[in-house]
Specification:
The protein is built from three helices and no strands. With 83 residues, the chain is mainly alpha-helical.
């Protein structure tokens, strides 16, 4: 069972499962891209974010139409300082 705290209490089980699916998809994609890069099948550079999936999905999930990607970071920062 997931113990809901603070804003997590506002997420349904379906939303949480959707976020988990996005985290898993991101991990699989980045792992595959990194493997292709190491095998010489991709040129340029690959900067894997493995281990950062929750942060990526969490920020993306906080976005609403018309909101810049900077706003959720500012909101989180403000809420963190306020306790």
């Amino acid at each position: 069972m997931i113990e809901a705290r603070r804003h997590a209490a506002e997420l349904s089980e379906a939303q949480l499962l959707g976020m988990y699916e996005l985290m898993l998809t991101g991990r699989l994609l980045e792992t595959r891209l990194h493997t292709m890069y190491r095998g010489g099948r991709l040129s340029g550079a690959v900067y894997p974010g493995v281990g950062q999936e929750a942060a990526q999905v969490g920020i993306a999930s906080a976005l609403v139409p018309g909101m810049s990607s900077v706003a959720p970071i500012a909101i989180f920062s403000r809420n963190s300082r306020e306790g």
